[in-house]
């Protein structure tokens, strides 16, 4: 019996990209439905009424939302090429780092450094650097966060490998300096060029335009509220 | 057989620590409880075990630290697999994790808006908070517990947070029982469990702690 797998996503969302990677790494066939977040489809609203967000995975008609919840579901349902380790302590560490990635790293870089300028940006950089340093330390002795091969944490942090360069270009600000973060820089290159990962990045020109527009809007809003 | 050493770095009023106390009790795990002076000076052990966040709860299992309450509850479930806290079917597990995440994102932050605000901001905070509880009421439905007949993961994540509701009610001028009666029935049902009743502080004591927090933050 063919199981029907659908993924509701946008072209640019790093959270949705995690699911694309997981599905492809496990060789799972699926249908993509692209959403326009300014005009959400009735299906999306029906499948994720609590948050009305993407990504949403629909498996045989049953919806799952929240990217880390979806990743764990995929890992438990399709057992080949496991994403999470088997040992409970190692699993706890993976979940911890994934949460740290979203709560601290993403927040401090995108909503901290990227949308600010001047003194505010300098202050935000201190926080961002601290968070990146923890990632640098975690990579010591490992090629990927998952060890020898890509795992849950690599998929969770994978957005860094593509988005950092875009943010640096748009903001004109170096964020991951190769001299300060040699291990993280190497990981970003290795991850970005890995099979499957390298074929699924969103188009760079559109990403630059999107993030330029975001930064301009945020800076304008900040200026007008002063 | 080696004796397992389980230590919890704890704070009596923290609902996040409450989650861990309940999970350990549900599994019948013996542990040593170390109260941390979180508003004063944190211990060396805490700072070394959780260098990134420097927060409680931290679970130390044979010396190895696990941080972040939801991560810890998942760890407890997997390290002591008898009496599982999550359902067995992957889809039901995903549903449980989804609502756990919803609770993590919405409840404590929503409640904070109530006790730390005044005037218009307080009214908005109260309205939003009640809306969140109604969503949870909807997902509970007619079930005894969030995943069905058995007390489990979602209940454990949520019930300790309700010890702060009395404080929100006092500052917000509302009662959860009036706004969300089914939710209140679920709270009472959980509080009848020994693991829960023994693990959680009196809401009146939490209220006094929140009063102190307001003073410390310069809110009258």
From TrEMBL, chain A:
Q: Which reaction does it catalyse?
A: RX + glutathione = an S-substituted glutathione + a halide anion + H(+)
- List the CDD domains: GST_C_Tau (cd03185), GST_N_Tau (cd03058)
Instruction: Answer whether the UniProt record assigns the keyword Transferase to this protein.
Output: yes
**InterPro entries in UniProt:** Glutathione-S-Trfase_C-like, Glutathione-S-Trfase_C_sf, Glutathione_S-Trfase, Glutathione_S-Trfase_N, GST_C, GST_C_Tau, Omega/Tau-like, Thioredoxin-like_sf
GST C-terminal domain span: 87-211
Q: Which GO terms describe its biological process?
A: glutathione metabolic process
Give a Pfam family name.
GST_N
Kindly report, in one word, the top-level EC class recorded for this enzyme: transferase
* Keywords, sorted A to Z: Transferase
Q: Which GO terms describe its molecular function?
A: glutathione transferase activity
Q: Which family does it belong to?
A: Belongs to the GST superfamily.
Q: What is this protein's name?
A: glutathione transferase
Source organism of the structure = Vitis rotundifolia (Muscadine grape)
TrEMBL record, chain B:
Task: Kindly give the Gene3D superfamilies that the UniProt entry links to this protein.
Answer: 1.20.1050.10, Glutaredoxin (3.40.30.10)
Q: What class of enzyme is it?
A: transferase
Listed under catalytic activity are: RX + glutathione = an S-substituted glutathione + a halide anion + H(+)
The domain of life for this entry's organism is Eukaryota
Its GO biological process annotations read: glutathione metabolic process
The EC number(s) given in the record are 2.5.1.18
* UniProt GO cellular component terms: cytoplasm
**Carries keyword Transferase?**
yes
Decide whether keyword Transferase is in the record.
yes
One GO molecular function term of this record is:
glutathione transferase activity
What keywords appear on the UniProt entry? Transferase
Q: Which family does it belong to?
A: Belongs to the GST superfamily.
What is the designated name of this protein?
glutathione transferase
The lineage, from the top, is: Eukaryota, Viridiplantae, Streptophyta, Embryophyta, Tracheophyta
